[in-house]
Amino acid sequence: MLDAIAAGRLAAEVVGVFSDKPGAAALERVPEALRWSAPAKAYPSREAFDADLAEAVAACRPDWILCAGYLRILGTAFVERFRGRTINIHPSLLPKFRGLHTHARALAEGEREHGASVHFVIPELDAGAIIAQAVVAIESGDTPETLAQRVLGVEHPLLLAVMRLAASGRLAEHGATVTLDGHPLFTPLRLDFAGDLTHPATGLAA
Q: Considering the entire predicted model, what is its pTM?
């Protein structure tokens, strides 16, 4: 996202970067005034950590909160405070393979395709309304590692395409439904080879 903003490919501003890992590389990409980090293990409970994190996020007054590479489960209080503004990227074609080890599980189940999903965050893990997906074919001889590399290759353009919609005010969450330009999106958008999002039923650009 930072590279896309710098290159003029995303009309947005990063107002804060937050991590439970003080050494996270993303923190080094922004000025010190935009950084917040604290080791979660230093807190007496998950709720206490989430409360501090929520206050730090709220102080930045963000329009959107993007979870990317953040592996802690956000508690209900945090999620509800920022409901409808928090987006996560997950390495599977949700609702399949919520949680961890998605690539190994896809291979074990004999899936023919795999991919990544961007969804709204709700208290239930990886269960929020799905905004868009990118699909990769599973090839003969794939391992969890080779599959993970190909999925990572589509995660970045997928996330960028979704954030363009969000930053332009076209995207919203209404209950369990995603809306695009005020209209319900009953099927997740799909990322095409050009890096654009399309409606899978029609092939038309979003």
A: 0.96
